[in-house]
Amino acid sequence: MLAACAGNNGNTGNNGNEATEGTNTNTNGNTGTEQPAGEWAVKKFDPPVTVTSAIAIRDSDKLRGGDTPENNPITRYFEETNGIKTKWKWLLTDQNDALNQKIRLALASGEELPDVLAVGDAVLLNELIESGSIMSIDEAFEKYASPRTKEAYEKNKDVWQAVTKDGKKWALPQISDGFVGDPIMWIREDWLKAVNMKAPTNLEEFEAVLAAFKKKYPDKTPLAVTGKNTQSPLSGWMGDVQFLFGSTQPYIWDKDANGKLQYGSVQPTAKDALVKLNDWFNKGYISKEFGTHDEQKATSIFTAGDAGIVFGPGWMGGWPISDTLKNVKGSEVKAYELPSGIDGNVGRTGTKLAYNMYVFRKGFDNMEAIFQIWDAGLGYLLEDEKNPFAAGFGEGYDYVMKDGKPSWDVPEGNVELRYLLVAPGNKPPGMVEGPSIYERVLAGKKDTVYEQKVAFSSQPLSLEGNATALKQLDKAHRNLYIGAPTKTYSEKWTLLNTLETETFIKIVYGKAKPEAFDQFVKDWKAKGGDAITEEVNAWYEEVK
């Protein structure tokens, strides 16, 4: 999960956990697990082929038993099974945006790029396209991608928008699982019991719970909120209030009733939500210092026992929500689906369509090898029981064998191996149906090696949180503007974002009247917003 957010690594797949992030294996083999019959098959190249790439090594990337970045369980598997050799042309230290800097230096100096590079920056992708140093992948994808790889992209077509320009696909994007960052509602269940109330399902009920919490615990804060995120206060990765905005989410570009892209922060519902937050501020439902609270500070109020509700991703159940049980004797915490917001609809800002993508050097002629590796990674994500990495990516690293069975209790500590040349990242939405692996494990299932691994490595609250997050995937609104900044965007967005942030926080604090929102919208449009909206929609028409 976390590695999918890291754009400065040669390998951006979290080789230890992604198979646990999504829906279940289909034991009938219909969709998503085993390959359907056809011409595509696992292949061994003879003579072997060598593929070069780059990787930024982290402090936690510890190798054991004499292994090296080019000779470890992952690289050995692909060389022995597929005849694919790994060579790291650039071996960097993961600090100060090292990989992106190296790529830009190579472009400036004319140095030849490695065969494959991981890129997480839309601006850098555009620079690579304009430089003529990478190739489009349209033909290679159609020729070499496995059936289940093609199916994954067919069911998640929007992800191609991140890499499309002039009608061509310039990279192979990872498909995010659709919920890695999506918030749910975490509530102190013991507080709910103390006020004899149920978890809220709509805004009216939510406000009633806030009022009851404040009355019962006058020295506490009913709702923990972050307001310090300079790009999107009120919508940080923990401690957000996205639900309040309903179906029109702030800080993102989403479709309007006519199918055009509109910016959520300048829509009327945003004003209504801000006015409501100001009311909660005045009533003491949120901290008077929320504007100085970043995500971890806001959440720490909850885990210290001083707040009754906090919003954030399902994975928070593992950290830091579980700290509440340690810090507050007798506390109970439970994960709930989001209530409806200010417009009567349930809504949240969805996970990015793609966190990273892979580009390929112009002239690189081993794309078939790339899709062999990609399919192996995808099989793992889809819980393919025949996948070679089902137990883990390296014996002695993320699992050991005990009495002929895998165990994830590694004596020397669990180490993530990140040496796949390409990694799909997360389980693509829509590939298989049925209860998620979290729901299955919560219900006591430990039939497959994947279920056994999740059961061993996950805390109950983490399982509960992730299972809850998956229940409202259809309520998520993803940012549909995922291309490189347009001309006006590059020139004006910093100014517009500052104007937006200041206006929102002032209204919530009561330092500006609600009418200040109307003036903000006028200024936003006049100072570049209208031009950006026109440019964004021109881009969208080209890539959709």
Automatic annotation (TrEMBL):
InterPro entries, sorted: Bact_solute-bd_prot1
Name of protein: ABC transporter substrate-binding protein
Keywords assigned: Signal
Keyword set includes Nucleus: no
Domain of life, per lineage: Bacteria
Biased composition range(s): Low complexity: 1-34
Region Disordered: start-end pairs: 1-39
Ribonucleoprotein recorded as keyword: no
Gene3D superfamilies: Periplasmic binding protein-like II
